[in-house]
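Entry for adenosine-5'-triphosphate complex. Fields follow.
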Amino acid sequence: MENYEDFISTVSHELRTPLTSIRGFAQTMLNSWDMLDDDSKKKFLKIIEDQSNRLIGLVENMLSVSKLQSENNKFVYVQTNLRQAIEPVIAIIKNAYQNHSFILNCSRNVPDIITDKDKLQQIMTNLIENAAKYSDDNTLIDIDIVPAGEFVSIKVTDRGIGILPENYNKIFTKFSRIDNPLTRKVQGSGLGLYITKNLVDRMGGRISVLSGGGQTTFEVLLPIRNVEEQARVRCNQ
Ligand SMILES: Nc1ncnc2c1ncn2[C@@H]1O[C@H](COP(=O)(O)OP(=O)(O)OP(=O)(O)O)[C@@H](O)[C@H]1O
Ligand SMILES: [Mg+2]
């Protein structure tokens, strides 16, 4: 969706849906306060909270998209230990998805890589959050890190609803969500993977997905980069 008018109309729609529901539930509470029991009030406030979170997520994602397109979005390459960078990301997501199990396997021969640590954490947040969002409670999500030639391979595997091969390309485009009962239940703007792929590409990496046999795996390959290459990357920024 590169057309500006399409973009505006999609964004307006995405903003209007949660706003309409926030206004509706706020009005219902104001107009019928005395007739509502505590449980209903709590339920309505929860909807208002969820929809506000959805708006915040959407605005944050849209800011990331506009940053991707701006010249000022500089990448800062530093020596990064993958386990140390990814552990805190898992801890934050675990907090929101307490019934999922997350297992991080980082093989011992994985070297530190020279990369932008914040952007790496943004990539991992999107992938691990999706893995949790599109799978049931009490299922396992593993994150496996192994060396792969001049790259390191980071795989995020879930046992969730899966993705059909005909949608493998579509999910990386702007505002794309695959319609099914579970995606309808969970919130999302369809921007996460678009942002993720852009970041991976700009960091000289690759991202791919494979789904089947009850498992879905997103793999990110990031270049290890030695010190000389690091200097070259800096000069070209
Ligand atoms: N691990 C996964 N398993 C199944 N489907 C997935 C998975 N990850 C992504 N998808 C599908 O790809 C779509 C796009 O994902 P993406 O992360 O870009 O957007 P989102 O999760 O809907 O919203 P957000 O912008 O908040 O991340 C999702 O709506 C979902 O249909
Ligand atoms: Mg997402």
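NOTE: The radius of gyration is 20 Å.
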